[in-house]
Amino acid sequence: MTSALLCLVFAYLCGSVSTAILVCRLMGLPDPRSEGSRNPGATNVLRIGGRKAAAITLAGDFLKGLIPVLVARAFGQGPEVLAATAFAAFLGHLYPVFFGFQGGKGVATALGVMVGLSWQVALAALATWLVIARVWKISSLAALGAATLSPLYALLFGLPGAYALALLPMVALLLWRHRENIRRIRAGTESRIGDKKKA
User: Fold this and answer.
1) How is the chain split into domains, by residue range?
2) In this structure, are residues 114 and 154 in contact, taking their beta carbons and an 8 Å threshold?
3) Confidence class of residue 199 from pLDDT cuts 50, 70 and 90?
4) pLDDT digits 0-9 by tens, 109-143
5) Which of 46, 97, 158, 188 has a beta carbon 3.0–4.6 Å from 54's, enabling a disulfide?
Protein backbone atom coordinates (compact mmCIF):
# COMPACT_ATOMS: atom_id res chain seq x y z
CA MET A 1 0.00 0.00 0.00
CA THR A 2 2.80 2.42 0.90
CA SER A 3 4.65 1.84 -2.36
CA ALA A 4 1.42 2.27 -4.32
CA LEU A 5 0.72 5.57 -2.59
CA LEU A 6 4.26 6.75 -3.25
CA CYS A 7 3.81 5.92 -6.93
CA LEU A 8 0.64 8.01 -7.09
CA VAL A 9 2.21 10.98 -5.30
CA PHE A 10 5.33 10.79 -7.46
CA ALA A 11 3.21 10.62 -10.60
CA TYR A 12 1.14 13.67 -9.67
CA LEU A 13 4.22 15.70 -8.70
CA CYS A 14 6.02 14.63 -11.84
CA GLY A 15 3.03 15.67 -13.92
CA SER A 16 2.91 18.98 -12.07
CA VAL A 17 6.29 20.02 -13.47
CA SER A 18 5.19 22.35 -16.27
CA THR A 19 7.69 21.81 -19.05
CA ALA A 20 6.33 24.70 -21.10
CA ILE A 21 6.74 27.25 -18.32
CA LEU A 22 10.22 26.02 -17.36
CA VAL A 23 11.43 25.93 -20.97
CA CYS A 24 10.16 29.45 -21.59
CA ARG A 25 11.85 30.72 -18.43
CA LEU A 26 15.16 29.08 -19.24
CA MET A 27 15.11 30.31 -22.85
CA GLY A 28 14.04 33.84 -21.96
CA LEU A 29 10.65 33.51 -23.63
CA PRO A 30 7.33 34.99 -22.48
CA ASP A 31 5.20 33.02 -20.02
CA PRO A 32 3.02 30.75 -22.20
CA ARG A 33 0.13 31.40 -19.82
CA SER A 34 0.06 35.04 -20.87
CA GLU A 35 0.96 34.85 -24.57
CA GLY A 36 -0.60 33.27 -27.65
CA SER A 37 -3.39 30.90 -26.73
CA ARG A 38 -2.33 31.17 -23.05
CA ASN A 39 -1.98 27.40 -22.89
CA PRO A 40 1.23 26.03 -21.34
CA GLY A 41 1.74 23.37 -23.96
CA ALA A 42 4.00 22.56 -26.90
CA THR A 43 1.75 24.13 -29.54
CA ASN A 44 1.71 27.49 -27.81
CA VAL A 45 5.45 27.31 -27.11
CA LEU A 46 5.96 26.69 -30.83
CA ARG A 47 3.98 29.84 -31.51
CA ILE A 48 5.92 32.07 -29.12
CA GLY A 49 9.34 30.43 -29.07
CA GLY A 50 9.91 28.34 -32.18
CA ARG A 51 10.58 24.70 -32.97
CA LYS A 52 13.43 24.00 -30.57
CA ALA A 53 11.54 25.22 -27.52
CA ALA A 54 8.42 23.38 -28.66
CA ALA A 55 10.31 20.12 -29.23
CA ILE A 56 11.81 20.26 -25.73
CA THR A 57 8.38 21.00 -24.27
CA LEU A 58 6.78 18.15 -26.18
CA ALA A 59 9.46 15.70 -25.04
CA GLY A 60 9.17 16.83 -21.44
CA ASP A 61 5.38 16.57 -21.39
CA PHE A 62 5.59 13.10 -22.94
CA LEU A 63 8.23 11.86 -20.50
CA LYS A 64 6.45 13.09 -17.38
CA GLY A 65 3.56 10.85 -18.40
CA LEU A 66 5.74 7.90 -19.32
CA ILE A 67 8.29 7.87 -16.48
CA PRO A 68 5.89 7.53 -13.50
CA VAL A 69 4.17 4.56 -15.13
CA LEU A 70 7.51 2.89 -15.86
CA VAL A 71 8.63 3.51 -12.28
CA ALA A 72 5.43 1.96 -10.92
CA ARG A 73 5.91 -0.99 -13.26
CA ALA A 74 9.52 -1.39 -12.09
CA PHE A 75 8.25 -1.57 -8.51
CA GLY A 76 6.01 -4.47 -9.52
CA GLN A 77 2.68 -2.67 -9.18
CA GLY A 78 -0.43 -4.34 -10.56
CA PRO A 79 -2.77 -3.05 -13.29
CA GLU A 80 -4.95 -1.03 -10.91
CA VAL A 81 -2.01 0.93 -9.48
CA LEU A 82 -0.45 1.36 -12.92
CA ALA A 83 -3.73 2.78 -14.21
CA ALA A 84 -4.10 5.08 -11.20
CA THR A 85 -0.49 6.21 -11.60
CA ALA A 86 -1.12 7.06 -15.24
CA PHE A 87 -4.16 9.12 -14.33
CA ALA A 88 -2.29 10.89 -11.51
CA ALA A 89 0.49 11.98 -13.87
CA PHE A 90 -2.06 13.22 -16.39
CA LEU A 91 -3.98 15.07 -13.68
CA GLY A 92 -0.77 16.70 -12.49
CA HIS A 93 -0.18 18.11 -15.96
CA LEU A 94 -3.68 19.58 -16.15
CA TYR A 95 -3.69 20.90 -12.59
CA PRO A 96 -0.04 21.35 -11.48
CA VAL A 97 0.41 22.11 -7.79
CA PHE A 98 3.66 23.97 -8.55
CA PHE A 99 2.06 26.44 -10.97
CA GLY A 100 -1.21 27.50 -9.42
CA PHE A 101 -3.08 24.54 -10.91
CA GLN A 102 -2.86 26.20 -14.36
CA GLY A 103 -1.79 23.38 -16.64
CA GLY A 104 -1.92 22.39 -20.27
CA LYS A 105 -4.44 20.43 -22.27
CA GLY A 106 -2.74 17.07 -21.77
CA VAL A 107 -2.28 15.54 -25.22
CA ALA A 108 1.46 14.79 -25.02
CA THR A 109 1.24 13.62 -21.41
CA ALA A 110 -1.69 11.38 -22.31
CA LEU A 111 0.40 9.80 -25.06
CA GLY A 112 3.21 9.27 -22.57
CA VAL A 113 1.01 7.41 -20.11
CA MET A 114 -0.44 5.36 -22.95
CA VAL A 115 3.04 4.24 -23.97
CA GLY A 116 3.73 3.34 -20.35
CA LEU A 117 0.55 1.32 -20.06
CA SER A 118 0.56 -0.30 -23.49
CA TRP A 119 2.59 0.43 -26.60
CA GLN A 120 -0.17 -1.20 -28.65
CA VAL A 121 -2.75 1.33 -27.48
CA ALA A 122 -0.31 4.19 -28.00
CA LEU A 123 0.52 2.99 -31.52
CA ALA A 124 -3.17 2.62 -32.41
CA ALA A 125 -3.90 6.10 -31.03
CA LEU A 126 -0.99 7.56 -33.00
CA ALA A 127 -2.19 5.87 -36.18
CA THR A 128 -5.66 7.30 -35.55
CA TRP A 129 -4.17 10.77 -35.13
CA LEU A 130 -2.28 10.45 -38.41
CA VAL A 131 -5.37 9.32 -40.35
CA ILE A 132 -7.62 12.08 -38.98
CA ALA A 133 -4.91 14.72 -39.40
CA ARG A 134 -4.33 13.69 -43.01
CA VAL A 135 -8.02 13.71 -43.91
CA TRP A 136 -9.23 16.80 -42.00
CA LYS A 137 -5.90 18.57 -41.36
CA ILE A 138 -6.98 19.68 -37.88
CA SER A 139 -4.53 18.74 -35.14
CA SER A 140 -6.95 19.20 -32.25
CA LEU A 141 -9.59 17.05 -33.95
CA ALA A 142 -7.01 14.34 -34.59
CA ALA A 143 -5.88 14.41 -30.96
CA LEU A 144 -9.42 14.22 -29.61
CA GLY A 145 -10.36 11.44 -32.01
CA ALA A 146 -7.31 9.39 -31.07
CA ALA A 147 -7.88 9.91 -27.36
CA THR A 148 -11.58 9.10 -27.54
CA LEU A 149 -10.86 5.75 -29.16
CA SER A 150 -8.06 4.80 -26.76
CA PRO A 151 -10.30 3.08 -24.14
CA LEU A 152 -11.82 1.00 -26.93
CA TYR A 153 -8.35 0.06 -28.16
CA ALA A 154 -7.44 -1.03 -24.63
CA LEU A 155 -10.43 -3.37 -24.59
CA LEU A 156 -9.79 -4.66 -28.12
CA PHE A 157 -6.21 -5.56 -27.21
CA GLY A 158 -7.46 -7.48 -24.18
CA LEU A 159 -5.69 -5.27 -21.65
CA PRO A 160 -6.76 -5.09 -18.00
CA GLY A 161 -10.08 -3.31 -17.52
CA ALA A 162 -8.38 -0.86 -15.15
CA TYR A 163 -6.54 0.63 -18.12
CA ALA A 164 -9.76 1.44 -19.97
CA LEU A 165 -11.27 2.81 -16.74
CA ALA A 166 -8.30 5.15 -16.32
CA LEU A 167 -8.44 6.27 -19.93
CA LEU A 168 -12.14 7.18 -19.78
CA PRO A 169 -11.80 10.11 -17.35
CA MET A 170 -8.69 11.19 -19.24
CA VAL A 171 -10.78 11.39 -22.40
CA ALA A 172 -13.46 13.37 -20.56
CA LEU A 173 -10.88 15.85 -19.25
CA LEU A 174 -9.25 16.17 -22.67
CA LEU A 175 -12.61 17.00 -24.20
CA TRP A 176 -13.26 19.56 -21.46
CA ARG A 177 -9.85 21.18 -21.85
CA HIS A 178 -10.38 21.37 -25.61
CA ARG A 179 -13.90 22.79 -25.39
CA GLU A 180 -12.89 26.02 -27.15
CA ASN A 181 -11.26 24.00 -29.92
CA ILE A 182 -14.43 21.94 -30.23
CA ARG A 183 -16.50 25.11 -30.58
CA ARG A 184 -14.18 26.34 -33.33
CA ILE A 185 -14.27 22.96 -35.07
CA ARG A 186 -18.06 23.09 -35.11
CA ALA A 187 -17.95 26.67 -36.38
CA GLY A 188 -15.41 25.81 -39.06
CA THR A 189 -12.86 28.29 -37.70
CA GLU A 190 -10.37 25.96 -36.04
CA SER A 191 -6.75 26.25 -37.19
CA ARG A 192 -5.64 23.71 -39.75
CA ILE A 193 -2.25 22.06 -39.95
CA GLY A 194 0.07 24.34 -41.85
CA ASP A 195 -1.68 27.65 -41.27
CA LYS A 196 -0.67 30.22 -38.66
CA LYS A 197 -3.91 31.05 -36.89
CA LYS A 198 -4.23 30.68 -33.12
CA ALA A 199 -5.00 27.13 -32.02
Assistant:
1) 2-187
2) no
3) very low
4) 999 999 999 999 999 999 999 999 999 999 999 99
5) 46
